[in-house]
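Hey,

The postdoc asked me to send both predictions to you directly instead of through the lab channel. I've kept everything plain text so nothing gets mangled by the mail client. Protein one:
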Amino acid sequence: MEKHLPSLHFEFYDNQLMSPLTVVNNGHTVNIDLPRSALVPQITGGLMWEKFEPKSIHFHWGSPNSKGSEHTINNERYDAEIHIVHKNVRYFDLSVGEASKFPDGLAVLALMIQAVPVSKRTDNPLFKIFDVLPQIIPNQSNATIKGEFSLQQFLDQVENKDFYTYKGSLTTPMCAESVTWTVFKDVVHFPQKEMSKLWSLRDSRGRPLINNYRKSQNINYRDVYFKHAPVYRGP
């Protein structure tokens, strides 16, 4: 469904995140908590009527034999998905878990990752994160990322004016109905060799940490909107 929605607005998204940043294998996913800086990155627009600040980044993926994005676009599932989790600034004094009790508590930016057979290294911070994955194979292990990056660098491969958005839930129990989802139409390409590092991680039982995505759910009368900004080609 198309609807006239405001474009996304990113504030301080191109500022370098405060370091050091710690990557954690928590037995369910690869997670990075984002420290609060003096100039706090914020987003608004789409279905987000208030400002949201980023709190963490985590991933969902498949296995050597299956794809693992949580969203599908035109019925296509991708190899993995990045979630940048934001909290409504209205709830500045609450934790993410506490804010999730409110229907406007959270917002998540979702980017699809497609594995490709190239090995060229770019400025995408995914490379810095995946560099330390061999250090966090055991459950509850962590490693420090070397070098700095900004949240904007995650978005450099996508057109942030083209996105799907809807009001939904978290994808992990208790699946609180508190998330404004923004799913970018464009896909991030990332080397297959790097992606395969995810399959070596272990969960809390020492088993391969694979297929950590929630299966597609029924829309259940939700409205899903698509925002598209036509390209101006001149007179």
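Protein two:
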Amino acid sequence: MIIPNNPFFADISTYSPKKSIPFYERVFRWKYYKKNNYYLAFLADIEVSGLYETPEKFKQMRMPHFWMTYIKVANLNTTIDKAKQLGGIIELSYEMIGFGKVALIRDPQGAGFTIYEGDQLKNNRTKNTKNTLIWNELHVSDITKIIPFYQGIFNWEIEKNQNEVYEVLNNKGEYIADILEIQNQYKGKYEYWVCTFGIENLATSKKLILENGGNLISKENNRMLFTDNSNEAFFYIKEV
């Protein structure tokens, strides 16, 4: 069972699935299977993420390739109402028979995430499994503008630790995400949610990513930030 208000899934929007799929299959040993117009990635027989082609209207707007964080909710409409009241923007909302309800929301500083009500999407986030999603975090330029928003819609507690990182706790007191305040000169002009994927060895994965057209953005103590071969969709890798 997925705990409501927890990050639990991620997928990537790409202009060219034919180019993106081989990259991720080589880097993370995933295998993609197409269902309707959506691709599910598997690690052996375990579903680990999703992929879809960016809709044409967003291509015309030059929206970049990106990884999307999904957050489970108990009631999508109630969450949407709270988000509107607290300054969020609802980019889209829809229901698919046999799948569930989905909405794309932007917080008051513009970071986008998806909420999901239903039981068809599985919890694909693990704690320490190689080649899976292991963490989600939000990068913002001014945290004071978004704390009331996330506390209000998800009932999160947000506490600053000694390393100047804001830890996100769910209503059970479980540590589920981070928020980092980063100035635009370092993170760029956009606010965004970021996915971290577990890997066996940083040096080996770095070599694979670079050989397949990805680019290294930054290196931290125990993880690295890369773009994929689109040079736009970015993600962290971390040894587990």
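Summary for protein two, as requested: The longest helix spans residues 17-28.

Thanks,
C.
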